[in-house]
Amino acid sequence: MKIILATLFTITLCACSSTIPTNQEDISNQVIVERDDFKQQTWIRTPLYLSRQGFTDTFPVQLSFRSLYKGDKRAFIQLYVSSSNVDWGFYHSANGQDGYSFEFDEIDNEVSANTGMVTTEEVFGLIVPYTYLEKMASTDWKIKVYGKRNEGVFQVPASLSKAFLEKLNCYEQKTC
Question: Structural domain boundaries of the chain?
């Protein structure tokens, strides 16, 4: 029964988000640059996409790249991740496929109980150095997150990393 509920929950999650386009230009056209003159800052972000590693993926997540600029200086680049699960996770750390340990930011988490099933929604950010984003732009990149009671692997397609990297470069060089 738990497997059926988990499958239905995953299908519901997938219906709310589009998957990451494979065409880098499609992603680039959807990147948002949002300037706040009152705070003298700019957010650059991709839409929230569903990342799946095929039909049998047991750890689908929604993810987005975002970067904050204060004045003309880049404050950080972050991979924003939202994970919905039927198991308790409470993630606290993440490593890239090469063993790199990301700086981990807990953003939000929520636990819901309906019809005898517990679901968790966890939102976290992974700080991505610019040079690491360049590496991620060259190939599809796997990241593993670790939690108190759960762990999972998700993939960041190179098309997403490369489109975001190019938008950052375009913004910093004032050519877009």
Answer: 2-172
- Count CB neighbours of 63 within 10 A: 23
Q: What pLDDT digit, counting tens, does each position of 64-94 carry?
A: 999 999 998 999 999 999 998 887 778 999 9
* Full-model pTM: 0.82
Report which residue type is found at 69. Answer: Y
Residue pair 81/124 in contact by the 8 Å Cβ criterion: yes
Question: Which token pair is 41?
Answer: 């800052």
In the chain, DSSP assigns E strands to 32-36, 41-45, 49-51, 61-70, 73-85, 91-96, 103-114, 117-127, 141-147, 151-156
Distance, CA of 159 to CA of 46 (rounded, Å): 12
